[in-house]
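Today's session is about reading a structure prediction critically. Students often jump straight to the picture, but the first step is always the sequence itself: look for stretches that repeat, for charged clusters, for runs of hydrophobic residues. Only then move on to the predicted structure, which in these notes is written as discrete structure tokens rather than atom positions. Here is the chain we will use throughout the hour.
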Amino acid sequence: MYLSNQRPPRLTIREKVAELTYNTRWFAPLFFALCFALSGGIGLIWGLIVNTAHPPMGDLPLYPGAQAVLDERGNTVTRLDTSTVNAGRPAVSYSFETSASPDTVAAFYEDALKHTYGFINPSVEASGDRGYTIRGLRMALRDRWVLEAVNVTITPVNSSLTRVALSFDIR
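Below is the predicted structure for this chain, in token form.
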């Protein structure tokens, strides 16, 4: 305490900062609002920079040179259409044959699902005699957020023929 004719004691810098910040009512709300604004702005900018749009699954990738492409009903088709899945069908499936080796077909579908369509780490599992099963999952926004799943089963028929079965569904 000091008398009116005396000078007030000098405050240290630490005491001045404490007096201006911690001891006032507006410090906490302002501090949290500032932190929220900075983090939200940075997150928005980062999201715009790294956002990579993946194509919708209108068509599954068809292996080049595929022969005898059939849908689940046994009808011959020219493209692997998935647009009907949302229209009351739980899944679609296709099958075809190719003269390519199972290794080449597996590499094609792993690359297409990962890099072109944005599936999360498609798993490639060896199955049977030189066969493969590839599974991919991704989140997609249709009329709501859904989980899209693709399964590719690759089976060698003989040394010059490989059978491929693809299925696509929404969960």
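Discussion point for the tutorial: Strands lie at 59-60, 67-71, 80-81, 91-98, 120-127, 131-141, 145-158, 161-170.
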